[in-house]
Amino acid sequence: MSEDKPWPDTIRAGECEQHEPLVRRVLAPNPSPYTFTGTQTWIVGAGSDVAVIDPGPTGSGMSIGDPPDANGTGHVDAILRATQGQRVAAILCTHTHRDHSPAAAPLQAATGAPIIGCAPLALTDDGPRADSAFDPDYAPDHVLADGERVAGDGWTLEAVATPGHTSNHLCFALVESGALFTGDHVMAWSTSVVSPPDGDMAAYMASLSKLYERSDRVYYPAHGPAVTKPRQLVRGMLGHRRQRERQILRELEKGAAVIPVMVGHMYKGLDPRLTGAAGRSVLAHLLDLKARGLVRAHEEQWELA
């Protein structure tokens, strides 16, 4: 999709849209302040078989229960319609938040395809989640290592390890076209939430730098429009995170502070529904700064070291 195409007025949940010869997209019906228009399931392949990336949510992973899509049925049915006449050869998940991986199991039951990609992860977080927490039932048949490939009729996907948003996050590079499926690691509509204890700011920054050194032509994220100038966006995201870090240090130069107060000063005009997520990202920055010996914590207060 071109970045100058109207967004999101032209898209509807459940409809299959062609983005390039080997890439189609089906939007899940789970819009929210955290998922934008919903989770995007990517279908790779134009021949006898295909791969499905991020099959999406079911049930509690939907923002409003389990609503029907534009054609009156569920998201798994929409994927099956989009792949009719082709064999689903692989179901790949970038990570295991509940808006990404739960539909892998029913899709596997319907197609017999193996679930591969990221490692399983089930954590109990101690703060508000931006994407409905983790999928405890995710059970992959095979976990892809960084650089490992899976291939089908005319397509090859290579795993690119990108921890940070979650410790198990993977991107997938489509070798034949130069596209990169970035999950929640890089999105054009919003920065990714990095929420401890599993989210790690140092790892996230390292993963951004890793992508900056690549030469991918286009990014297809799990939420929001395609990114047609990937390195420019990643450079901006690295700068944005460094700016947030400097903001935090300036806040603490005024004296010890708690996270909610810092969020109020740093995120002017923020949607109140997003304050919890902002606080988690501030915490991730603080933990990184603490590991580098720049700040310290006393109970819930933070101060310069």
Automatic annotation (TrEMBL):
Pfam families: Lactamase_B (PF00753), WHD_BLACT (PF17778). It comes from the Bacteria. Residues 38-223 form the Metallo-beta-lactamase domain. GO terms for molecular function: hydrolase activity. Keywords: Hydrolase. This is MBL fold metallo-hydrolase. It comes from Sphingopyxis lindanitolerans.
